[in-house]
Design a protein that fits this description.
198 residues; 10-stranded antiparallel beta sheet; 59% strand; 1 helix; mainly beta; 10 strands
Length: 198
């Protein structure tokens, strides 16, 4: 991602300070591409997710450590309240380190357009409107990764709401991902968004 350099250091410092304090929303425009995944899982949690244009199908993700089965979920437009994202990694000489991202607290939720998530575990209280289960993945609306291979099991709905979202995933992409009130920290030790059930 290219970042336009600001001519004056004072303006740049003020912008970074504003982002860190949550005063400046961060909007990332991402061009979805096909890439080999790291294979490392990370967590996503939110008080609630509300989305329109939901599709989901079974797929296989290729990673540096082999292939993994999972479910690809695509949402045309989504809002997440009180988002938490965490990844725990092991670094040489340091041990376990957690990168933790929090955003979308209060009255300004995180917003995503053309959100695509590869997941292998999801928990929460879900409500779907006008859902169709057992659809051929190749007949799903949309294009690119919003569709699956012909004959693959899929489901679709006009809208979805998931309360108390707890998700383990290997990949997230979006055309636009707006992180209001963004806070990012990197700390020693394992400090995930939630403790996964055994």
């Amino acid at each position: 991602m290219a970042i336009a350099l600001v001519p004056t250091l004072a303006v740049s410092a003020a912008l970074v300070a504003g982002i860190g304090a949550g005063a400046v929303p961060v909007s990332l425009a991402i061009s979805p591409t096909t890439a080999t995944l790291s294979g490392q899982s990370f967590q996503v949690a939110a008080d609630s997710l509300e989305g329109t244009g939901f599709t989901q199908y079974l797929a296989v993700d290729s990673s540096a450590h082999g292939d993994f089965p999972g479910a690809v979920s695509a949402i045309n437009s989504a809002e997440l309240h009180n988002l938490c994202q965490s990844v725990v990694s092991s670094l040489p000489g340091i041990g376990e380190v957690t990168m933790l991202i929090k955003a979308g607290g209060g009255s300004k939720p995180v917003h995503a357009d053309q959100l695509i998530v590869d997941t292998d575990a999801l928990e929460g209280d879900a409500t779907f409107h006008n859902i169709q289960i057992g659809t051929d993945a190749a007949q799903l609306p949309g294009d690119g990764r919003a569709k699956g291979p012909s004959g693959a099991f899929a489901q679709q709905a006009d809208s979805v709401r998931i309360d108390h979202l707890r998700q383990t995933t290997r990949s997230i992409s979006a055309a636009t991902f707006q992180l209001n009130d963004l806070h990012l920290t990197v700390k020693k030790g394992a400090q995930p968004c939630f403790r996964a059930a055994p």
